[in-house]
Amino acid sequence: MAIPGQKQLTSMDEFLEGIWKQNPVFVMVLGLCPALAVTVSAVNALAMGAATTFVLLGSALLVSLMRNVIPKEVRIATYIVIIATFVTIVDYLIAAISLELYEALGAFIQLIVVNCIILGRAEAHASKHAPGRAVINALGMGLGFTIGLFALGSVREIFGAGTLFGVPLFGPDFQPWVVMVLPPGGFFVLGAWLLLFNWWRNRKPAASEPANVVREASHG
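Structure (tokenized):
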């Protein structure tokens, strides 16, 4: 039901919300535990992003379908059970696909169940909207989280190992920046990306101010 005076989001708005306006990593600064822990390589980053997106999509769809039958008193507990079910599925899938990747991600696969991005989407969006909108929003959030992880993992792998997806990028004389594959490197790269992302988001409003001043002066 439309609320008078409130702008209604289109499907594209719902999708782009998580990628740009409310990017989980660079705007809401959520899910930083896996973002900093597993992003020592681009492969690990994409795998964790894909796993989180799968859980987001599955839980958002199921919560939306059951939103009218879940009692309000136990809704959070129900959401956690639903999320844990999809986490278990993705945990077994990764173990079946690649044991090496499964060991690299470690306990952070199981810890997806406590990722505040997923529970927040279930409570704030999926429980209030139809399945179509819930899935579109969850997909945007998942892709936004994956983009954030890949931005961290690719930079850390390039400078920390001199490779990208395991492919050497520099000559044999390249000296890896060991700090990039250590915890401090994750904080350095995250801080640099946050600085760049916020500068880019604030760039257009700042650029439009002189034009507004000229326009107001001409009317004056």
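DSSP finds eight helices and two strands in the chain. The chain has one domain: 11-165+178-219.
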